[in-house]
Prior knowledge:
By secondary structure, the protein is mainly alpha-helical.
Amino acid sequence: MQSSRDPTRKTMAHEHPFQMLFETLGRLPIAHADSVNRRAYETLFDILSVPLEKSGRCILLRAPRAGHGKTHLLARIQHHLGASHEFIPLQASYGCQIDASTVIDDALRRLLRPLPASGGLCMLDLVTRRLFAAALQPLVASGEVPCQDREGALTALRTRPIETFDFHHPNAVTAHWTRENFEVLGQRLSVELARRCDLPIREVAFWVEALFRFAATPVENPIRLRVLADAVHAGNPGGVVLTERLEALLGLLSLLMRVVLVADDLEGFSTDETAALRLAAFLGGLRQSVERLDVILSLNQDVWENAFVPKLSGGLADRLSEVVVELTPLTDDEMVALLESRVPGLGERVLARVDRAAAGTHARGLIRAAGIAWLKASAMDSQAAAPAAAAPVMIPPPAEVPVVFEPAPEVVPVLQPATIDPVSPPPFVPADPAPDPVPPPFVPPATVFTPSEPEAPVTWAAQESVGVPPPPAPESSPFQIPDPSPAAHGMVEAYAEPPPVPAPQDSPFVPAATPFEAPSAPEPVDPAPAAVFSVPQSPAFETPAAPVQAFQPAPTAPETPAPDTDRVDDLLRQFRERYGRGGS
């Protein structure tokens, strides 16, 4: 399985200019080369560009094989002649059945296409109004239909037929008069139209009534399309009736525009000779009944020889091939022009990479082979660019300055002894800020009393908590009371909330607030002791022992005997034993 980063897979996922292999009749091709099938285009254009009153013909558009651009050619002809011609594509039912019923549906589907910016009107609305105006003109001119301003009415019918028969406008007097008198006027209109197109009156009258009901129904009424379709197929009419109705509809349309039936995409007839014979007879009959009708039969040489030729009589084959337009293989110049229409400026380069044997000499094969060559070239470019993009750019350092990579030195706290107090043990103060210490194992709490002066100085530990460096040791009396904070020497555990112990009012041993109280917080997370500073017992930092003196408070205040002498003595003994102060 290829990785999602594979450049070939990524290129395959992107669109390329040779993906469109098939055209659709009714849509203008996006890419086109004028030199490809130019002679066939000019022949078709000349045959179809004839006046309205000229007779139609049956055209056999034939190609050596599929993919020579028949649909592309017909789409261009339809685009250039669409203003004066109505092209009706014929869709084969079940792949190989084209009859009167399917052609009526195809014609109505084409005529019911909505018009832009028309408020819901479709092409069939305009056809109906123009037919009624054309049929009413001789009746007004002969005086059969009375009119106060005959010349003005005739001018309006000739120049403004769509506004004159606007059944939805309140000021269209002629349209409303026709609506009120249609039972009588409809018959006269049917006779006039049947005479002009030389078709039976019965089927012409059917379409005149059906089209009137359709055009007179409000545009916003959604059932008017269904009413028209139901009227055409009401009573399940037979094939003969439907054929006559189709001939009448095509005859009425041919009074207003050139009508061209296009039978394209007939691959389904390649193995059915009987269906091909029925189609040939059906199209030949329409050509004889509707004089102005043009028919284009577009197929490949193999379908023509395998399905049509074996069953067709000489006369029927001559009718279908009244005009033959042959498509020819592509030349080298036409191949380059065709590729240039997809990738301007790269036609020759793409053609040089195309597998000519696989492409052949038809347009579809060339475009398919060009797409494969395009993908291969894109994949090769992506694979060639991938290693270069992945390789890092190495810039060598200057020769005279060697680059040496050394690990960063680990910061090790260096403990230096502070000024030695002759009475108290020397506290060890770190020379540089040390990393946060690791708390020692939990020790059960014990009640500890720390003697303090009434106004004790701020200890080094409290200053350290706010980032203030420790002050130098004060020069004072050797009998001065040491720092009351045990944790200042880094040897006593500090507890967040030591239990208060009452003391005599005049005693110098009044418990002072410990400087190691935890900062106030909404809720203590862990009631465990705060960080403990401890000094490792290292021989390198041993200090000669100072003379040990008995611990006595400074005679700053008269001593008041404690209420509980035994309790105080017991605590003093514990204090001396723990901190090694000596004394009795």
